[in-house]
Amino acid sequence: MSVHEMIPYLCVSDTAAAIRYYERAFGATERFRLTEPGGRIGHAELDLGGNLLMLADEFPECGIHSASTIGGSPVTIHLHVDDADEWIRRAVAAGATLESEPADYFYGERSGSVRDPFGHRWLIGHSIEEISPEEMQRRYTELLGGQA
Questions:
Q1: How many CA atoms lie within 13 A of 62 on its CB side?
Q2: Number of domains in the chain
Q3: Which CATH number is 65's domain given?
Q4: Fewer CB within 10 Å, N- or C-terminus of the chain?
């Protein structure tokens, strides 16, 4: 047994609007969508630079609710890019809310976070330094004032 892929599958309050947002913010391209006769989108697939993102409208009759309906999501999607500052700027210009400005972090990444218009949190970053897990732990401990 093995895992072949792990694909984010987001429930959103308006999949058609989310597709337009992800196209503007992240340069996504729509692969396809499955639409019910009443207009509800049961499944859509987007390509983000060779990575798959799946979306669907809410299905409350099945207990499937969007992040905006339930008041947010505890899940953060990490988008590793070539220029975090530019990607964050694009996401905000397309309608995201800036949660944290891009900054350099102890774990060797420059990153910041946004909340998209559909309630999902995106941590957007790029590598600035290759460091070992041991060095990362040392820096993390130091950041916490030496408290492990």
A1: 8
A2: 1
A3: 3.10.180.10
A4: N
Residue 26 contacts residue 79 (beta carbons within 8 Å): yes
- At residue 96's C-alpha, the angle toward residues 143 and 59, to 5°, is 110
Q: Rounded distance, CA 141 to CA 148, Å?
A: 6
Task: Name the phi and psi angles at 110, rounded to 5.
Answer: -100, 120
Residue 65 contacts residue 80 (beta carbons within 8 Å): no
Q: What share of the chain is helix, strand, coil (3-state, %, to 5)?
A: 25, 35, 35
> What does the CA dihedral 47, 55, 41, 4 come to, rounded to 10 degrees?
80
Residue 43 in contact with residue 54, Cβ under 8 Å?
Answer: yes
- pLDDT 10s digits, 41-53: 999 999 999 999 9
The reply to whether 1 falls in a domain is no
> What strand order describes the sheet that includes 109-115?
76-80, 121-127, 109-115, 97-105
Residue-wise pLDDT for 55-73, tens only, equals 999 999 999 999 999 999 9
Q: What pTM value is reported for the model?
A: 0.90
